[in-house]
Predict the structure.
Amino acid sequence: MKRALALVLVFVLTACGVTGAPSRDAQGADTFEDDVRTARQLTESFWKQQFQALGRPYRPITAFVPYSGRSGPRCAGEPPVPNNAFYCPAGHFIAYDRDWMEGLWNQMGDGSVYLIIPHEFGHAVQAQLQADFALNVQAELQADCYAGGTLSALIKAGALRAEPGDEEELFLNLAAAGDPTDDWLNPAAHGTAEQRQQAFATGYNRGVGAC
Ligand SMILES: [Zn+2]
């Protein structure tokens, strides 16, 4: 119903298209599931290294759960919201509406998956680093920043690569990154498109340390 608004945030970055090293766009072989799995693995290994470098233990998420509509894992008693992805602090898990995310993947390419998943992992990281972790605009923008920093680090490390032939623009769509209790299209909950774009760009250009 509000799907059109899901496209509000389009990041125009300097370099090229971001695609997974095994890329649907580049090789035509990656499935949605491949991209989801790759995004999860790369993001988690990135954060493991970051924590190691800080001498802190990293606590892997307990589960990574696809759901459909309202039938999915509850978070602190609340049912999941359709067309959403979220981190649940109560169970330290990430869940995503599989149909919705696959729809984005089909419409907009794999960039959507490589943005949403690192954003949610950003919350899982916040929960480990912040004693008073709470979801609010500030936390959402920091998660966007973490997502940008994660992606640029993975590109620099060669784990992801920028797609040749796409020099002029990289469109990363931050379509989503909702959370169980808020309206993910509501700027009061996640920040405006400009704020989110800026937060993402800060992480992308300066790394997660700048977030
Ligand atoms: Zn979020």
Summary: The first helix runs from residue 24 to 27. The chain has a mean pLDDT of 76.
